[in-house]
Write a structure and sequence with these properties.
Length: 510
């Protein structure tokens, strides 16, 4: 069963049905477009929501280091990633469904129009043939009547006694002519009738069934495209579900990983002062005239008011880029002071590591340029080498300063990483046990006497403007106090007695 054989006479029905199917496909394309816009708007609103709540409490969260506050920021970050996947879903729907279906829809409309035009053209041709058939039929009918009249007229002339032979011959010739014309019109009518029947048979048994079969194939392709569009509508989102579920799982893990016990202990670590609570208030007996003399060994504790214990402290957060001065840290409680000093030392170590690696890279590059001048000019790297040297000297001085403060605060010596990590660590050669190891930072001369390990000559001028460094002139003889420990610096002593650090590449050991 197909449209061509069973619906050959239902042209209007097929035309309406195919148009309705294309309209449905067009409606579905518009629906998917609006759905994609909904996803895009949803993603935009989610990003705006994350941005709105990410603005608050970021500085405080970093200062307090509470996992619950950081977890909220992680939730916002994952939700922002979730919004990106929603944006991707909108884009995928637009490309895989809307664009493809719109293209196919235009092709189907054009194909349907061509098929209907074929049917219309065939019907018009049949109508023209039918009109020609009617004309030939009417002409045959007219000519046959004229021929009958001519025959009747010939009979009347023959029966008339007054008619001459010439009149009879003339009437016969006229009747014969009319009969001949009628026979020609009859043949033409028969030919037109045969032509019309042939075209009509071809139209209803061949052309229309063929076109309607093509329209049926078109309709089936249209239905298949629409069905595939329904499937893609679901599959497109299913492909992104693993990523979306991953974001949601990460948010769930973030909440499960929060330890409420550890969270409360962080507050102790952040604000513990280390001071002992005030002692009991002594009883003052005014009933006795003479008070007993207090022992000299009895400590005089300051009187503390209860209001002062619970008075709210005004804490001002220091600038992120400004290191806390010694005065600011000295006013902090012991535990907080040690913690702040330790954090500062950790930051300086990381910065020293970065500068040391940059210095090594520059020296290696300079060596390559010296071996092959075509690759570059070694002197072009000199400003960067000098700047890196100044930065390392400055960092060395700051490490020395904060190490001293940490020692005074009772924090002990800082445990540096091995020399391979390129941190500035110089173990005292005169220490007798691991507990006596200290890091020489330019202040050890007050506690021990260093002896030169060799002599060296300055190859270049060095201003020594950074803290912990010493200046020197090209050609100057220097005493080598400590060799290069892997950071590209050596400690030297000038003839004037000044001791400090200079770049190892600026000297030549004798």
């Amino acid at each position: 069963m197909d449209w061509g054989s069973d619906l050959w006479d239902q042209h209007d029905v097929i035309e309406r049905h195919t148009q309705s199917g294309l309209d449905l496909l067009d409606r579905y394309v518009k629906f998917v477009k609006e759905r994609a816009e909904v996803e895009q708007t949803y993603a935009k609103l989610l990003r705006n929501l994350c941005k709105k709540y990410s603005r608050r409490g970021i500085k405080e969260d970093q200062d307090t280091k509470l996992s619950s506050q950081q977890a909220f920021q992680d939730v916002l970050n994952e939700l922002n990633e979730y919004a990106a996947h929603r944006d991707q879903l909108s884009e995928s729907m637009t490309l895989t469904i809307c664009v493809e279906l719109s293209k196919n829809l235009q092709e189907l409309r054009l194909e349907r129009k061509n098929h209907l035009c074929e049917v219309k053209k065939a019907q018009q041709n049949l109508e023209i043939t039918f009109k020609q058939l009617e004309i030939s039929k009417k002409r045959f009918e007219k000519e046959w009547r004229e021929a009958e009249k001519a025959n009747q007229q010939t009979e009347r002339v023959q029966q008339d006694t007054n008619s001459t032979k010439a009149d009879v011959d003339k009437a016969k010739l006229h009747a014969h002519s009319r009969v001949h014309i009628a026979d020609e019109s009859k043949n033409e009518y028969a030919s037109q009738l045969q032509r019309y029947n042939k075209e009509q048979s071809s139209l209803y048994h061949s052309e229309i069934p063929s076109v309607f079969k093509k329209l049926q194939d078109l309709e089936e392709r249209r239905i298949r495209l629409l069905a595939d569009g329904y499937v893609q509508f679901s599959e497109t989102e299913k492909k992104l579900l693993p990523n979306i579920n991953k974001c949601l799982d990460t948010i769930s893990s973030t909440g499960r990983n929060i330890d409420e016990k550890q969270e409360t202990l962080v507050l102790i670590e952040q604000h513990r002062s280390g001071a002992a609570p005030p002692a009991d208030v002594e009883f003052e007996d005014y009933s006795q005239g003479i008070k007993p003399v207090a022992s000299d060994n009895t400590p005089h504790l300051p009187k503390v008011r209860i209001k002062q214990l619970f008075k709210k402290k005004q804490v001002t957060s220091p600038d992120k880029n400004t290191p806390p001065s010694l005065g600011d840290l000295s006013r902090l409680p012991p535990d907080q002071r040690r913690r702040r000093l330790q954090e500062k030392m950790d930051d300086l170590q990381k910065e020293m590591q970065k500068e040391t690696e940059q210095s090594e890279a520059l020296m290696k590059m300079k060596g390559v340029y010296e071996q092959n001048s075509q690759l570059g000019d070694p002197s072009s790297l000199q400003p960067q080498i000098i700047q890196t040297a100044h930065n390392i000297a400055r960092l060395r001085g700051e490490i020395s300063k904060y190490q001293g403060q940490l020692t005074e605060a009772g924090g002990g010596t800082l445990q540096f990483s091995p020399p391979s990590a390129e941190y500035i660590t110089v173990l005292s050669e005169s220490s007798t046990s691991p507990s006596e190891n200290i890091y020489e930072c330019g202040l050890d001369e007050e506690f021990e006497v260093d002896f030169p390990v060799g002599q060296c000559t300055a190859l270049y001028d060095f201003d020594g403007s950074s803290e912990g460094a010493v200046c020197m002139q090209a050609g100057e003889q220097l005493s080598l106090m400590d060799e290069d420990q892997g950071d590209g610096w050596v400690r030297v002593q000038r003839a004037s007695g000044d001791v400090g650090y200079v770049p190892a590449s600026y000297i030549q050991i004798i």
